[in-house]
Amino acid sequence: MRKALLIPMGVMMLMAVGCQEKLEDRAERECREQTEKSCPTPIENFSSMDSLTFERATHTIVHHYTLYDRADDSLAFVGKEEEMHRELAKVIANTTEGRIYKDAGYNYRFVYRSHKDPQRILYSTDITAKDYK
Fold it and tell me: Does this model's pTM top 0.70?
């Protein structure tokens, strides 16, 4: 009788594990859902978030922004690249959202584009686990 109960329980446990969403699938889904729900965000501090995407090959969560007005200038970042990188790494380190991705060592990329010329990337940086841990 005991074996008869253990076998179905074991099968159910295996089914539950098999149905769990892979972390890559979850990241892709959550980025898509966040984009659909919140993007583009209202313009604040001369920027707006356009979308979040996920690159499976590199395990990178990409934040896409557009810059407006006086921030829409490539000279605004000259000489400030390292400072921006450090500040963005600090934001990732101090954010509790997405902890599961940080624990897994995922990367983050921030891409800032020009509102006047959307094909033009004004600033981009990659934040790796060594930057935010």
Answer: yes
- Cβ atoms < 10 Å from Cβ of 89: 18
Helices (H), the chain: 2-19, 23-38, 81-94, 99-103, 129-132
* Separation in Å, CA 125 to CA 6, 9, 13: 52, 48, 42
10-residue averages of pLDDT along the chain (133 residues): 44 48 96 97 96 98 97 90 96 94 97 97 97 94
Distance CA 44, CA 42 (A): 6
Cα(100)–Cα(30) distance, rounded to whole angstroms? 12
Q: Report the C-alpha gap between 110 and 92 in whole angstroms.
A: 11
CA gap 65, 68 in Å, rounded: 10
